[in-house]
Write a structure and sequence with these properties.
heterodimer, A: mainly alpha, MetI-like fold, 13 helices, 0% strand, B: mainly alpha, two-stranded antiparallel ribbon, 14 helices, 2 strands, globular, MetI-like (chain B), membrane (chain B), transmembrane (chain B), ABC_transporter_permease (chain B)
Chain lengths: 288, 293
């Protein structure tokens, strides 16, 4: 009896459930793609039918609605700059923290790890205050203008640093110690040794952190709504939210699904391209 | 002196400064604001002490948001890790397991707002799910109505987050050498026993970290609520579906003068709950590290 349950029933049922889960995920993604090519009447009345004639103009109408084109540009720029900055700031710090035998290193690692447990809500009010103050300060005293998107970028980077340092410190520890010695013998300075020797060796870990941050920044919602809420400042998730609530009145459902595709499919492509490495690099960083 | 010792401070300082000035210092400022009555820069800040907290404890809307957040963390977490463990029992030997892992992880890379928009469309009163129910002669359900919306959100949350933990734990489980399982099979251990006595102990480190990651992540749940509920009234989700993060957002962004002191107090309370839950999680998951010799 025990064998029957433990070896046959339970595993079989779980396997079936897992495949059903997989089928559901794939079907949902395909379904969104198909919906984006139908006219609004068909989207509503025949949600599971294939499009009779593909309506590519859904994409152009979504693109024009709710400032989607500027939202897409905002998302691309914020994501690219953000992810590069996060890795550029975190990787050198993680490297010296992982390697150093100074007494201050271990407490500093814990100090960064503490950031993992500070929920964003604790600093939500300060962020709003800083946002307003920086805007007024720059406008009145320094440059005469300011863009809230810069504030958004700065806070996105600051909030991502603890996790990046945490994972990268773990990852850097797993690298062999011999690698810098060659560079040292050649007389390379710290910066050159880091860029030319450490970074190439640590690339899988750096890629993991980079891609995880790209996905996080691309999908960022709370901070974006709070710091950069104006139509021309919005990123894609905020714009989609706007599109979604206005769809209740304009009922351009095909356009809404086109908007979902614009937001979702780039990340799916990125994931298919780099998928497996993301998780493996993370486990390497967490378990050591 | 090693090059990395010479580079210690120059390499560390940028991250240390960014983190301290823009993350730690604002947190302390948030604690300070939570003890005051304040509607933002330019207005007068008056000392309130713990009154903000006392008021929150007597506020029914906040109590709902608080309970919801707590339920999500505990019930959601329990279900997520139960599913993860079940998956780990079979996934080691299943054909196509790399593919399964990759696809169940997929919702993690998709914006929750997009998921909410698509699923919200399906769950509409006249939406596809109710149409399908109709084929089987079942009554349409008000999925996103006040009574069921929270359960739908928790369901959506479990669906979209579990894949992450499955992928993470499986990645750790794959590092266990196959001969350990072969020995276990020789002495007649069932798959479940193999999981309990081999896989779980050897991946416990990653599980301990995963549990903490979940606790921290679950307490700041925000966008999934917004995504499932914006179809109703724009930007103000119904009370039964709110989490602390949503409630705080409403207070900060709401019409009229924002009560920043009260909003900051919500943030500090989340911090305290997070801290307590992390300590508990670490307590429960604390074990001596098992290693293969």
């Amino acid at each position: 009896m025990r064998r029957l349950i433990g070896d046959i029933l339970l595993p079989r049922a779980t396997a079936v459930a897992l495949w059903a889960w997989v089928a559901f995920n794939l079907a949902l993604i395909a379904w969104v793609g198909i919906q984006s090519l139908k006219d609004s009447r068909d989207v509503w009345l025949h949600p599971f039918a294939l499009p009779t004639t593909p309506r590519w103009d859904n994409f152009s109408s979504a693109w024009q609605a709710a400032e989607f084109s500027s939202a897409a540009l905002n998302s691309v720029v914020l994501t690219a700059f953000g992810a590069v900055l996060i890795v550029a700031i975190s990787a050198p710090a993680a490297y010296v923290l992982a390697r150093s035998s100074r007494r201050v290193a271990a407490p500093t690692i814990s100090y960064f790890a503490m950031g993992l447990s500070i929920p964003i809500q604790t600093i939500l009010v300060p962020i709003v205050v800083v946002k307003l103050s920086v805007y007024t300060f720059m406008e009145d005293w320094v440059t005469g203008w300011w863009d809230n998107r810069i504030t958004l970028l700065v806070f996105q980077v600051a909030l991502s640093v603890p996790f990046a340092v945490f994972v990268l410190t773990g990852y850097m520890r797993s690298l062999p110690h011999e690698i810098e010695e060659a560079a040292e013998i050649d007389g390379a300075g710290p910066l050159r040794a880091f860029v030319q020797v450490i970074m190439p060796v640590a690339r899988p870990g750096l890629t993991t952190v980079f891609v995880l941050n790209v996905m996080g920044l691309w999908n960022e919602t709370l901070l974006a709504l709070l710091i950069a809420p104006l139509p021309e400042e919005r990123n894609l998730p905020a714009a989609l939210l706007g599109l979604y609530s206005s769809m209740q009145y304009s009922s351009d459902w095909g356009g809404m699904f086109a908007g979902i595709v614009i937001l979702v499919y780039p990340m799916i492509v990125l994931y298919i391209w780099l998928g497996r490495r993301i998780v493996d690099g993370m486990t390497a960083g967490i378990s050591r | 002196m090693k090059t990395y010792e010479r580079a210690f401070w120059p390499f560390l300082l940028p991250a240390l400064l960014v983190y301290t000035l823009l993350f730690v210092a604002p947190s302390l400022f948030g604690i300070w604001v939570s003890l005051t009555r304040w509607s933002g820069p330019g207005s007068e800040m008056t000392w309130r002490g713990l009154d903000n907290y006392v008021a929150l404890l007597h506020n029914e809307v906040f109590a709902t948001a608080f309970t919801n957040t707590f339920v999500m963390a505990i019930v959601g977490g329990g279900l997520i890790f139960a599913i993860t463990f079940l998956a780990m029992v079979v996934l080691r030997q299943l054909k196509g397991r790399a593919f399964i892992r990759a696809v169940v992880f997929l919702p993690m890379v998709i914006s929750i707002i997009a998921i909410g928009a698509a699923v919200g469309f399906l769950l509409n009163p006249e939406g596809a799910v109710n149409t399908v129910l109709g084929w089987f002669g079942l009554d349409p359900q008000p999925w996103l109505g006040p009574e069921m919306v929270f359960r739908c959100i928790v369901g959506g949350l479990i669906w979209s987050s579990t894949g992450f933990y499955v992928a993470l734990m499986m990645s750790a489980a794959d590092a266990i050498p196959a001969h350990v399982y072969e020995d276990a099979q020789l002495i007649g251990a069932t798959k479940w026993e193999q999981f309990r006595h081999i896989t779980l102990p050897l991946t416990w480190d990653v599980f301990a970290v995963s549990a903490v990651l979940w606790v921290v992540g679950s307490l700041k749940i925000f966008d999934i609520v917004l995504a499932f509920t914006t179809a109703g009234t724009a930007a103000a989700p119904p009370i039964p579906a709110r989490t602390i993060a949503v409630q705080q957002y409403i207070v900060v962004k709401g019409a009229g003068l924002p009560e920043l002191g009260s909003a900051a107090a919500m943030g500090v309370m989340t911090l305290l709950v997070t801290a307590v839950l992390i300590v508990l999680t670490r307590r429960i998951t604390r074990r001596d590290r098992v290693e293969l010799s």
